[in-house]
Design goal:
Two copies of one chain form a homodimer. The first copy, chain A, contains eight helices and no strands. The first copy, chain A, is an all-alpha fold and about 250 residues long. Chain A has one domain: Four Helix Bundle (Hemerythrin (Met), subunit A). Chain A starts with a helix and ends with a helix. At the A-B interface, α5, α6 and α7 of A face α5, α6 and α7 of B.
């Protein structure tokens, strides 16, 4: 099996796992957690896992591997640069709305914010992501950043991108684990304890496994140098901002 | 600042964070969790975080970056290969004893094993680590593995090595988060709730942050190609087993 076939196999797996993660987190929160609302209730909290998994894991991971798809290499980099920035912006917006859901819910119930390790890792991931997006926009899309700065920024952007994904995996796993312990106390007739592995626990645990496998595949694609987009001319392709490209 | 200076700065940080992680997990379990025993009690459980963090995170990460230290490049690879295998074996043994501690504690208290997402990710990390160690030993230290197999195994070994570290970070964060929620319920006069961030919560959360920063630095060192040990001859250095090297 040659290297490109392995890429497309991993990329196909990545797409399947993306769909599986989103279905799994939606099914969990619809069927077992009562669905969604925006009213400060438990139903508002349910947006939190759905939006974080969809935004900070699935869309983020897909945005990150975009440049690696060999089918896109024959074309101008500009539209892919804009699609990368747009996917990441959508991912950031979903993540921020996902954080608003949990802050609103906590405030309505007088539960303190940002005390758990899960919340520390999750807020660090989102804050770094926001910094990364602004720095990426200023560095790679605006025309007045000097070329030397772009060359310095690119490896930092690639490295920080992978690190944010690792943070978001750790935040997801700790969050799902915490939620299942909270929800499945087994003190009422309606819920069985987490330790007896009722269907909801199996779905939640499976979501965690899907997220981890998705993240490892994305990181594998990102770290394989032969799957990096070959730049026909490093001067005008990688580091040129869109405005300068358009004015050429 | 040149590339080697950056390496040594990151490696120095990696060593400082190693010491900080071990001190932090020991202090947490000694001062706030009552110390250690091997009697099926809560004190036996306390070995679990100490041994997993020391073995599966700190020793594992240090074993992984061993070949990247440029000071070692001028010497024969063999002693470093043996030290790598020995550090990883010690790390694996500590991890397995750390798992025994939690299984014994659960069994003594009639708590089911392996139901939480934390336990699924943690057991997957340890099982993959055991497979990785055996495959690495058979592939790189025994004389009868064909050279073609070694060449095939090396990238898989490097990739799986990084993936196991990511799993162990996710398991650590979810485990510390879960433990702090269990321990700091705030229902007795002795413990304040986790949400009020008492000193124990700050120490536990800080341990999680130290582990994540340590892991990201180790992964950064591993993923930088210019810090890979240059093999003077790929035939005899990278892929030759020790027994063949000794008989040469």
């Amino acid at each position: 099996m040659n290297s490109m076939m392995i890429f497309y196999l991993l990329y196909f797996l990545c797409l399947c796992l993306s769909v599986a993660c989103v279905i799994c987190v939606c099914v969990w929160n619809s069927l077992w957690r009562g669905g969604f609302a925006w009213d400060g209730s438990q139903l508002e909290f349910n947006w939190h896992p759905v939006l974080m998994v969809t935004g900070l894991v699935v869309l983020y991971g897909n945005g990150a591997v975009l440049y690696r798809i060999p089918l896109t290499w024959g074309y101008d980099k500009l539209p892919w640069k804009l699609l990368h920035a747009a996917l990441m912006l959508l991912s950031l917006i979903l993540s921020v709305v996902g954080l608003c859901a949990v802050f609103n819910y906590h405030n309505a119930k007088n539960i303190p914010n940002l005390y758990s390790l899960h919340s520390w890792i999750g807020i660090a991931a989102t804050a770094l992501f926001a910094i990364q997006w602004v720095a990426g926009f200023a560095g790679f899309l605006l025309p007045w950043t000097p070329l030397s700065m772009r060359k310095l920024l690119k490896p930092v952007h690639v490295w920080l991108g992978g690190s944010i994904l690792i943070l978001s995996i750790a935040a997801s796993i700790s969050g799902i684990n915490e939620k299942l312990f909270f929800a499945l106390k087994g003190q009422t007739n309606e819920t069985q304890p987490y330790s007896s592995l009722p269907p909801e626990a199996l779905v939640g645990n499976s979501l965690g496994v899907l997220i981890v496998v998705f993240g490892l595949i994305v990181l594998r694609i990102l770290s394989t140098s032969e799957w990096q987009r070959p730049d026909s001319s490093p001067e005008d392709q990688t580091y040129a901002p869109i405005l300068r490209e358009e004015s050429d």
